[in-house]
Write a structure and sequence with these properties.
By secondary structure, the chain is α/β, with parallel strands linked by helices. The protein is built from 13 helices and 11 strands. Helix content is 41%, strand content 14%. β10, α8 and β11 form a beta-alpha-beta unit. The structure holds flavin mononucleotide.
Amino acid sequence: MWKIGDLKIDGRVVLGPMSGVTSRSYRDFMKPFGVALSVTEMTSDVGVIHGLRRSMDYLRFGPNPPTALQLFGSDPSVLAQASEAALKANRNIDVIDINMGCPVAKVVRNGSGSALMKDPKKCGDIIRSIKRTVDVPVTAKIRLGYGSNINYEQVIDELEGAEVDAVTIHARTMEERYTGTPHYDLIRGLQERMSVPLIISGNIYSLDDAINDVGMTGASGIMVARGGVGNPFLITQIDRYYRTGEKLPNPTIDQQVDWCLELADGLIAEKGEELAMNILRGVAPKFISGCYRSRAYRNRLAIETTDLESLKKILFEIRDRMGSERIRTECLSKDN
Ligand SMILES: Cc1cc2nc3c(=O)[nH]c(=O)nc-3n(C[C@H](O)[C@H](O)[C@H](O)COP(=O)(O)O)c2cc1C
C-alpha cells in the first residue's frame, strides 16, 4: 500500500493513459486484473471549460478503481479552472494528472504536453495553481527531457517545490516518442532522491520488465500501457508478484479469446458496434500476438473484423486450433 497525497493505492500497477484506447470500457475491463490506479485519456483543459462533448465524455466514470483525470494545456490558471470544472462534473475523479509528456505536434505546438518540459518553472506553476484550487491530489506525467537536454531532475525539483503528489516518468525523450529502448539506466535510484511517489513508464511488456525496471529505479508504481493491450493478465502477474512473490504463468489462448470477447462487449456497449470494431481491428490481433504461427490470424483479425459475428468466427477458429497454447513473452512484439 502506498499513497498519492491522502489517497491510498492498493497495488503497484497503474493503467497508463492512451488516447484512443483507454476509454471507460477499456479501463473497466482492465480493472479486475489488478489495476490500482487508472488514468483517463488526455483531455483538453479548454474543452472541459467549454463543456465540449468529447471532453465531457472523458469525464464520465464511476468510483472504482481510483481514477486520475488527465488534462493537457499550458496555462496554469486555465488548467486550474478546468480541474475545478471537472471535479464539479464528476466527484469520482480521485486525482488530477497533468500531461507534460505528449510529443504529438498539435499538442506541443500550443505549448502543452512535452513542450512544458522546456520551461521547468512553468511546470511548477501549473501544479501550484491547481493545488490552490482543488482538494484532490495533483500529479504530473513527464519524460526524460527533449533533444539532448535531459532535464527531468530540474523539472521534478520544480514539481516537488510546488507540492506535486506523485510523478510519472516515461523514460524516453520527447523526440523518441514511443520507440526504442527506454533509458531506465538514466533514472537509476531516482525514487530514493524524490520526496513523492515515482511511477515509471516505458516498455513494460512482461513481469521481468517490471522487476528489472522497478529494481533499477526503486519506483512505487509501474505503469502498464501498450504491454497491457491484448495482454491484460500482465497486470495480474505484476500485481500478484508484488503481493506474494508468486510468478504466474502466461495465459492460454482459450483465456485470451474469452477476454477479447469481453472487451468487445464493453466497447460495443460504450461506443456502438461500428466504432468498437474500428478499435478492435487494432486491438484483437494483439490478444494472439504471443503465439508462434499466428501472423495469418492476426492479419485476418485486423482486416476481416467488421462486426461482432466476424470477430467471433475468427476467434473461435483460433481457439479450435490452438486454445491450449500459452502466449509466449518472447513472441510479444514491442514498439507497435
Ligand atoms: C496510442 C498511444 C496514446 C497515448 N496517449 C497518451 C495520453 O493521452 N497521455 C499520456 O500521458 N500518455 C499517453 N501515451 C503514453 C503512454 O501512457 C506511455 O507512457 C507510453 O506508451 C510508454 O509506455 P509503453 O512503452 O509501456 O507503452 C500514449 C501512448 C500511446 C502508444
